[in-house]
Amino acid sequence: MLAVNGIPTPENLAEVFPSQERLAKGPVAIAECFQNIPCDPCYHSCKQGAIQEFADINERPRIHFDQCNGCGTCMSRCPGLAIFVVDATFSDNEALVKIPYEFLPLPQVDERVIAVNRAGQEVGEVRVIRVQNSKIQDKTAIVWLAVPKEQMMEVRHFKIKEVR
């Protein structure tokens, strides 16, 4: 239960996940923000108009999935690191999961890392495809992971195998 252990329930997740049809169309942002807090940088960062305007700054973000192109600009603006991009069209057997990351050291392209789920449990080994870390991202890197398609909605973070 979210209020007790911080882990969203399947019902919580169903409220924020795009449909299978939308996932099949390409990259899309998913806002796994489950608290009503005064926060709206994601809305202001979205040039596509995919994040619904907030009537009250304490509302949770709502994404218009049909307007989202999965650019990920909102990810590095989210102070709660609660927005992810999933691309189910990456390959026949892998999806791309873009994860906001604020730790050092940053992983390297082609490095194998340990994917973890929302509870911090290891899901398996995955490959780093790209690491975006530009000045405009304000120290929130975006790490692109190639994950098995069946885990694309489960993988939400990772651990580097060895500290370099």
From TrEMBL:
4Fe-4S ferredoxin-type domain span: 59-88
Name this protein carries in UniProt: 4Fe-4S ferredoxin iron-sulfur binding domain-containing protein
GO molecular function terms noted in the UniProt entry: iron-sulfur cluster binding; metal ion binding
Sorted UniProt keywords: Iron, Iron-sulfur, Metal-binding
Lineage start: Bacteria, Bacillati, Bacillota, Clostridia, Eubacteriales
Pfam families to which the protein is assigned, alphabetical: Fer4 (PF00037)
